[in-house]
Amino acid sequence: MDPHALLLFLGVDVLLVCTPGPDWLHIAARGLGQGRRAALTAVTGVCAGYAVHTLLSAAGLAAALRAVPALLPALRLAGAGYLVLLAAGMLLALRRGGTGRAVTAAGGPQPTRTVLRQSLLTALLNPKGLLLYLSLVPQFVTPDGSLPVGGQVAVLGALNVLCCAAVYSAVALGAARLGGRLGSTPAAARRLSAVSAVLLLAVAGVTAAA
Question: Could you say which residues form the signal peptide (predicted)?
Fold first, then answer.
């Protein structure tokens, strides 16, 4: 691929990733309410979701979504609904008297695999990620390039995943540090869990309106 095109894509992609959106809010909610480990696990899940987007786009999913425009709004609403369920579970746990910074809908510690699964689904259903592969990536793909189209999509998608990993890790660590300072008591931890639930509802709203 043309190195100049790669650098241009990287510059545009970094700007997009650095713009706060659903991924930022989701990861910040994990960091504030559940600490550094959960936040970094969320980053891993989100990046894994975008890696799946890359593979599917390289296989032709982007073309399929362009051919059937109704699929994108359906995925957007599904993602928003999933986030509302997560937030509702957190609020119900607080109402039942759950305390501490790692709270699940059942009121116990949240396993790493649960955070990973939820973050993966959040990324897969995030319309911002889908739109990246539908609108931005095709602009940097050349049919007569040295790599086949699928290979070019895979390279550009891998660059996006790396950008997400770097930027979102910084967001995760910053949110976890802030949460650690503010949530040193059970009462403060409950308030942070409530803030985390509100952030997830905000993510749902942004996702539904995207």
Answer: none
Reduced DSSP (H G I as helix, E B as strand, rest coil) percent helix, strand, coil of the chain, to 5 = 80, 0, 20
Location of structure tokens 């699940």: 104
In the chain, what is the straight-line distance between the N-terminal and C-terminal CA atoms, in Å?
A: 31
Question: What gap in Å lies between CA 99 and CA 46, rounded to an integer?
Answer: 26
CA distance 25 to 118: 14
At 208, list the tokens: 């539904």
Distances 35 to 102, 106, 117, 182 between C-alpha atoms, Å: 8, 18, 17, 11
How much is the CA Rg of the chain, to the nearest whole Å?
Answer: 18
Q: What angle do CA 133, 79, 31 make, to 5 degrees?
A: 95
∠ CA 34-44-88, rounded to 5°: 45
Phi, psi of 105 (to 5 degrees): -65, -25
**DSSP for 117-155, written as a single string:** HHHHHHHHT-HHHHHIIIIIGGGG--TTSSS-HHHHHHH
**Rounded CA gap, 134 and 11, in Å?**
18
Q: What is the pLDDT of residues 74-122, one digit of tens each?
A: 656 765 676 677 667 666 766 665 444 444 333 344 688 888 988 898 8
pLDDT tens digits, one per residue of 29-42: 888 878 889 899 99
Entry pTM: 0.68
In whole angstroms, give the CA distance from residue 190 to residue 159: 38
